[in-house]
Every structure is written in C-alpha cells, then in structure tokens.
Design goal:
The protein has 390 residues and is α+β, with helices and mostly antiparallel strands. It is built from eleven helices and nine strands. Helix 4 packs antiparallel against helix 5 and helix 9 runs antiparallel to helix 11. The relative contact order is 0.12. It binds flavin-adenine dinucleotide. Flavin-adenine dinucleotide binds next to strand 1, strand 3 and helix 11. The site of flavin-adenine dinucleotide (FAD) has 22 residues, from strand 1, strand 3 and helix 11.
Length: 390
Amino acid sequence: MSTPGLDGYAEPWRKPEHDDLAEMARTFFLKEVVPHAARLEQQGHPDREHYRKAGELGLLGLSIPEEYGGGGGDFTHEAVMLHEQQLAGEGSLGLAVHSGIVTGYLNAYGTEEQKRRWLPKLCSGELIGAIAMTEPDGGSDVQAIRTRAVRTGEDFLVTGSKTFITNGYLADLLVLAVKTDQSAKAHGISLLVCELDEDAPGFRRGRNLEKIGLHANDTAELFFDEFRVPAANLLGGVEAENTGFYQLMQQLPQERLVIGVGAVAAMQRAVELATAYAKERTAFGKPLVGHQNTRMVLAECATRTRASRVFLDDCIVRHHRGELDVATAAMAKLYLTEGQCEVVDRCLQIFGGYGYTTEYPIARMYADARVQKIYGGTNEIMKELIARVL
Ligand SMILES: Cc1cc2nc3c(=O)[nH]c(=O)nc-3n(C[C@H](O)[C@H](O)[C@H](O)COP(=O)(O)OP(=O)(O)OC[C@H]3O[C@@H](n4cnc5c(N)ncnc54)[C@H](O)[C@@H]3O)c2cc1C
C-alpha cells in the first residue's frame, strides 16, 4: 500500500540499500511478530525471542560499527527500520529505546572495554537495553533527580527509584541517571551502566505499568536500595563522573528524532487506512470518499503528513551532518507528535463506530499516539527549549 499524498516523494538521504533494509524489516515485523500481537498485548511485554530474531537478521544496532556487532550504518538505517516497524503496526519491541537510544549512548561515550563488552550483545538481542531518567517525583526536571550513587571503594551503592521505564520489565542492561554529587544539580549527574539481575541484592523490578496504549510493550518501575554497581561501569569511565547531564543533553536530539520517525510513520499509516476505508464504505448511497467532508479531511491529513515528512527528513539530514541543534529537534518532536495525534484522531473519525473498536488498527493507533506528546520530554518542555533560542 502506498501512502496517498506521498507518491513520488523520495527522502533526500535514501539509497537503494535503504530499500533492501526496509523490505527485510517489513517482512520480519509482518511475518514474525505481528501475527503474535494479540498474545503479546495480553502478556504486556514482547517476546525475548523476537529481539534475538531481530538481532540475527541484523536489525538491531544498525548504526553501530561492525566491529562492535552492529550494522555499520548510520541514523538513516535506524530510521528506516523504525519507520517499517510502525507502518507494520508492530508495537511490542522497544526498538526505539533499545537501538535508537541505548546503543547510541554506549557507542558515543563508552570506553573501548565497555563497547566491546555490551554492544555485541545488544546488537544480537541477547541483552535488552533501557534508559532510566524519570523518577516518581518528576520527569521534566532532570537536574532534580534524587537517585543517588555513593562511592565505596571500587563500587557505587545506588539508592532510589525510577518509573515509566520503557523495556524496564525485561531489560538486562540499563543506562541509569544518578546523582554522584548530591550538592550539585546538572553537574552532579552521572550515567551508570547497570547489569540487571533479578537476584542481585538491592535491585527490584516493580510493576509492569498498565497503560491506555502500547499494551504489548513493557513500561516498568525500578527500585534500588544500596544496589552495588562497579565504578568501572560509569559510562565513559571514571573520568566521566558528573558529566551525565552533558551526555544526556547531547543525545536527547536523537531521542526526539526517533519519536518523530514513529510519528510520521503513524500519520502515513493512518492516512492509508482511512483512505482505503473511505473508498470501500458507503453512506447515503455512495462511498464515504464521495462526500466532500471526507475528501477535505483526507486532503488535509495527507498534506500535514507530507509536510511532516519533509521536516523530518530535513532533521535527519542535519543529524547526519552532526548539525541537529536542540531547538530544531524540539520543534520536530513538538510538531510531528501533535500532527500524529491530530491526524490519527481525524482518520479515526472516518471509521465511525468501527474506529472505536480495537478490532480496527486505527483505534489502537489512537491510544498509542497519546504518549508521544509526553515522553522524550513533554511537548510543554519542547516549547520551553524552542522559546529559549527565539
Ligand atoms: C509509556 C511511557 C514510556 C516512558 N519511557 C521512559 C523511559 O524509557 N525512560 C525515562 O527516563 N522516562 C520514560 N518516560 C517518562 C517520561 O519521559 C515522563 O513521563 C515525562 O518526561 C514527564 O515527566 P512526568 O511524568 O514526571 O511529568 P511532570 O514533570 O510531573 O510534568 C507534569 C506536567 O507538567 C508540565 N510541566 C512540567 N514542567 C513544566 C514547565 N517548566 N513549564 C510548563 N509545563 C511544565 C509537563 O509538561 C506535564 O504536562 C516514559 C513515560 C511513559 C508514559
């Protein structure tokens, strides 16, 4: 199915290799994972086996150098894979975080030893990655985090709690934001790479949270009580202590772009589904698409989708050149996720009552879309970041 309004549009960065990757990713998601969607939603988390299968196919860590087990590509390859996952309607695997974010942190800041130790296993799907910044007392003000890591000899003892952690129920490897200097704000934050083991003293997984959408992907609470982490697991090595906030700020534009990729793919899918439905469903003796309002709504949604696609691609090109600034990434996250929620809502309306039943993918897309305006920094925070440079 091609997207109405995007026929003939080609991403400026796209090469034939991206088409091959898209084909492989599409086949994997549609044939291997989507058939299990109902069961995965019921269990509330993905199958580990699907991570391993994705790893075998080379779909994990596409932008990670081959020497660390990755695909040797760049962000455009991650974007193609994530786009296909969304277009296929696959929502269980937390690849946006696992591949789009966690492997990126390790690759950007990890010491040689850290990269060799963890990246190959993340790329093979043997380890599932997560990142934890948000705490029960607040997520927007990252500088105010309270989870603390106190140095004792060769280790840190971590005490505190995190919540809303994507992949948190299954994660084996966690990039954890902690305070290593209690007296400082931003300059007291470090990132600790934690190997999560259910039997480790001082570590406990909380609930896999029940959400209004994204039912097949796990989002969990994590608790630490003098949990022992070797000081050598400081991301970037011991000399990187207290530079975590800087590391986070450097990586957040990519995280926001990852969210934007999902938003545009969802818009495309919504327009495709609604257009197809409007052509086959009749009301008052003619197809829905024969009614002027339906045509106007679809035209507006297709236009919004295309404009969003162009903006996203501009950001991808900038990111590829290392020039994606914080404000532009925030604009993308804001505009694309607001667009996703609006387009999906308007497309759902075309389905009438069927749009409200979970048998129809558009209903799930509606529920899944809402969080896009919340995580990765809320859209209110995005406006703050944009306003700062005006
Ligand atoms: C499904 C899901 C997955 C998530 N995955 C992760 C993850 O993997 N890792 C992780 O660390 N976090 C994750 N989060 C957490 C997410 O990033 C936070 O929920 C988000 O940053 C907001 O933090 P909060 O919920 O504490 O809201 P708060 O910070 O309490 O904000 C509440 C409201 O106040 C507004 N607000 C706050 N400050 C300001 C301000 N200065 N000006 C104007 N308005 C303001 C916010 O925009 C929001 O509307 C996830 C959340 C969800 C729901």
